[in-house]
Amino acid sequence: MDRAGHTLSEQEDTSIHLPARAHAWFLAVLCATAMLAGCSGDRSLGSGLPPSDAAIALDTPETSILPLDAGTERGSVCIGRGGSDAGAGLTSRLLAWYRCEAAAGASAASLPDSTGSGRDGTLVSQAGGPPGYSFGPGRIGNALDLSYAQQGHVALPAGLLADACEVTIATWVYPNSNDNAWMRVWDFGQDTTTYMFLTSSTNYDDRFAKFAITVGGRFQEESITAPAAIPPLVWTHVALVLGPAGATLYFDGAPVVTSDAVTLRPADLGRTANNYIGRSQFSDDPYLDGDIDEFRIYDRALSQDEIQALANGLE
Length: 315
Prior knowledge:
By secondary structure, this protein is of the alpha+beta class. The protein has 2 domains: about 20-65, no CATH class; about 95-310, Jelly Rolls. It has 4 helices and 16 strands. A hairpin with a 5-residue loop joins β8 (about 185-190) and β9 (about 195-200). Residues about 1-75 have low confidence and may be disordered.
């Protein structure tokens, strides 16, 4: 007999009944902590729930977001999302395009976004010193020259790739040298725990170019390493693509390394505040010493033909 005076027979269900939303939350916690078979692995957690609870889970805050400090074990928020629209044209889903022809703005410290979306970058130098940037002849028209000594870099708008489950970042790069290991071509992140970056060379024995992405710091990075560094004193078109096939790094229109083991995507990083051309999240890493031209950011995975077209100078 319960507290209300009701008698429980052996035929009656004596299990604990949770409200539907609480049940969805409970199953989601089990998915995240115990990785039960049949769980979806993404933030929706829909495919691991009974039909009625799956619908609730999709619009329940407790099950739609898992903490970033859960690390890579929770999988990507992009698992189960739709595929790429590769081949849609070089202006399709082009979020930002920095042609690097000249500075703009009243203080001449703005790097204009040629998409017309107003996602201009801000040119930044070391405080109290001469400018850490200038413009001169580049691969196509002019290029942006960044000074390592004066900590020249570009700060891009926050949240550029906050919802991106695919991305292509493509640019022409002219490193003055590769003596400064880990200098960044670009780096998008929150801090030294949550970020993604491309470096022209490392201080490993091979000193090759590397892309990495993580939500758990440097020891939980998912990465790919090229078979060579980005060569100094020449222009190289470098593109990083994250899409359904994983991660692929291109030099001059040709894929040099690819891996389907890279599962994280920009959306997993959240609304990143520190998005840079030529600067790292880590204060000990050197700034880029070299030139940048035609820097493009897409929220889709470009095809190899499209990457080749960019390397051929098409727009």
